[in-house]
Amino acid sequence: MKIELSTREVAQLLAALRNWQTDALNEDPAEAFAGHFEDQVPLND
After folding, report:
1. Is residue 22 within 8 Å of residue 13, measured between CB atoms?
2. Cα 6 from Cα 12, distance rounded (Å)
3. Of the chain's two ends, which shows fewer C-beta atoms within 10 Å, N or C?
4. Whole-number Å distance between alpha carbons of 45 and 42
């Protein structure tokens, strides 16, 4: 499946990821996303 994004959508996506990345530096990913990592260890930096 291929999804095409406009440059505006790409900019929004990158901004959201950067925001999440900044917030994630102050949290333990294993605790913040415990439901997503029940069977897997989250990736480290």
Report:
1. no
2. 10
3. N
4. 10
